[in-house]
Amino acid sequence: MHTLAALRLLPFLILLGCATTMVAQPVAFNDEFTDNRNTWWVGESPNGACSVAGGHYSVSCVRPGSWWYAERPIYIDPKKDYTIEVRIRQNRGSHSGGFGIVFGASDPQNFNQFIISSSGAAAVVIAEGDRWNELLPWTRVEGIAPMRQYNVLTVERRGSRMRYLVNAKEVATSPVVRLHGFDFGVLVSDTMEVEVDRVTIRQEQTINLVPKAPKKVEKVNLGPNVNSEYDELGPIIAPDG
User: Fold this and answer.
1) Is 194 inside a domain boundary?
2) If you count Cβ atoms within 10 Å of the first and of the last residue's Cβ in the chain, which end, N or C, has fewer?
């Protein structure tokens, strides 16, 4: 009788497990670079160049021994769990230089970085002013794709812990890191060119609505000091949600 009862419960438990697995964070931001509607920085600088074309965001570094990152603000609620996922490849340049992502940045002295190299190593570094904390010093990692092949970098926050994954393989964990700001960037170093073809950020984000806010409000242009020709995409918030 106990065996029969267990067998009757088995389909329910399987369905319950599937339902639990299927629960995922909603997408808060996604860009596959079909155009530059999300206003990533493009142009040339003494450090390198950036462009959006052909479904890619291309970032290059032209100064040997240096590094920099091209950023844009993407909101992440620092009090909630989140997932950052980036599909990136190196097309040319140094095999030993690092490339990857910067998140929670406020300026070039305060940020978090998760980087890899085409030679097969990974590193996680937290920068806070003059202090650099290597959560994962450069470490050889199996499964990093070589030059001109895509790697998927994932950063997950779950509760009080962080996970860092390359191609779905965990390479490091840490306590929750501080988000100094909302800037997200693509980092390159030494002399190289990389391409990103997808940036996805998942998080449950809610907008607090104004109680009994009017549904129909006449819009008024406040002039060029407030309103411009550009769209505000990060994020759009209205009192009616």
Assistant:
1) yes
2) N
- Please indicate, yes or no, if residue 211 is contained in any of the structural domains: no
Q: What is the pLDDT of residues 160-172, one digit of tens each?
A: 999 999 999 999 9
Helices (H), the chain: 2-22
Specify the DSSP element, H or E, that contains 152.
strand 151-158
User: How far apart, in Å, are the Cα atoms of 121 and each of 118, 167, 192?
Assistant: 7, 13, 16
Asked, for residue 237, whether it belongs to a domain, the answer is no
Angstrom distance (rounded) from CA 193 to CA 189? 9
- Enter the tokens of residue 50: 């950036």
Regarding beta strands 192-202 and 27-31, do their DSSP bridges make them parallel or antiparallel, or are they unpaired?
antiparallel
Tell me how far apart the alpha carbons of residues 241 and 207 are, in angstroms, rounded to a whole number: 6
Residue type, 171: V
CATH number of the domain bearing residue 68: 2.60.120.560
Total domains present in the chain: 1
CB 141 within 8 A of CB 218: no
* Under 8 Å between Cβ of 185 and 107: no
Helix, strand, coil shares of the chain as percentages rounded to 5?
Answer: 10, 45, 45
Residue 126: count of CB within 10 angstroms of its CB: 18
Residue among 139, 136, 116 at smallest CA distance from 125: 136
Q: pTM for this one?
A: 0.80
Using DSSP's 3-state secondary structure scheme, residue 37 falls into coil
**Residue 93 corresponds to which amino acid?**
G
Q: Is the confidence at residue 17, as pLDDT, over 70?
A: no
Sign of the dihedral through C-alpha 30, 31, 37, 40: positive
How many Å apart are CA 76 and CA 23, to the nearest integer?
Answer: 20
